[in-house]
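In the current project phase, we have settled on a layout for protein records. One protein thus recorded is set out beneath this paragraph:
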Amino acid sequence: MIALTGTPGCGKSSIAEELKKRGYRVISVREFAEKHGCARKEGEDVIIDVERLKKFEFDGIVEGHLSHLLDPEIAIVLRCNPLLIKKRLIERGWSYEKVMENVEAELIDVILVEALQSCERVFEIDVTEMSVEEAADAVEKILKGDADEFRPGSVDWISVLGDRIEEVTRYGGI
């Protein structure tokens, strides 16, 4: 199993679709959980029983912001500038709380840290300036073993954004 993970709004689903077109076997965490009876609706949310879902195997790429918690062989963490994530989630109509929770999670590397704690082979790709095709190319490089440039620790949003941190954490337009 290969996890394609990252903060909501970073492009996981689009990149997963491109990888499917290239012949990779790809499933979303939600589809995988529903297939194995590990998902339940709670209001508008779908709650996934990650601990139970870990018991099932998948030979391919599992896409979703929880996929790194499923004990994958490899976790590929997609990273994206928090300002862009903020813009995308606002455009999706997400609530203030959900937007800010996810922006802050990206800013402080939450998913990367979780992946490093739960998986031995972790890579990160800054997809901020990449097209979907370029990001899929980067994933393929990792899968083919050419992964040196994607070692974790290369993305530091706090240093990159510097004086713009207030803009990141303030809700509203960019």
User: Anything to note?
Assistant: The mean pLDDT is 92.
